[in-house]
Known about the structure:
- By secondary structure, this protein is an all-beta fold.
- The protein contains no helices and eleven strands.
- It has a six-stranded antiparallel beta sheet, with no helix packed on it. Strands 4-3-5-6-9 form a five-stranded mixed beta sheet, with no helix packed on it.
- A hairpin with a 3-residue loop joins β7 and β8 (82-83).
- The protein starts with 7 loop residues before the first strand and ends in a 7-residue tail after the last strand.
- The model has no long low-confidence stretch (mean pLDDT 91).
Amino acid sequence: MIPPPSSYVLQAIRGPVASRSWTISADRIFIGRDPEACQILLPRTTTSVSRIHASVRWSAVARGVLLCDEGSKNGTFIRGRGRIPEDVDELLTVGAELWFGNEQVAFVLVCEERNANG
């Protein structure tokens, strides 16, 4: 059974936002250095990351979490798959490690168990 979208979390494992996490929803969550556009905001000094670098979202059609490089200069990467193409949704698996520009800023997709009773 595919977990509901509220169970998916993008967790920062390295970099300036390490140990923070964001719940994935059907709304695109933008990752980058632009404070007006990005929900996952990295410091301006994180120069390997573009202003609007990438996005993640839950897709009912794909039945999972999608990652998209939003035209970044230095690339978006998934461990084991390498650099992903620009403007193409890539389906992530639970445990996927991803990074932006270089491996100094890295995240992992996790699925949190939800208690059916609340």
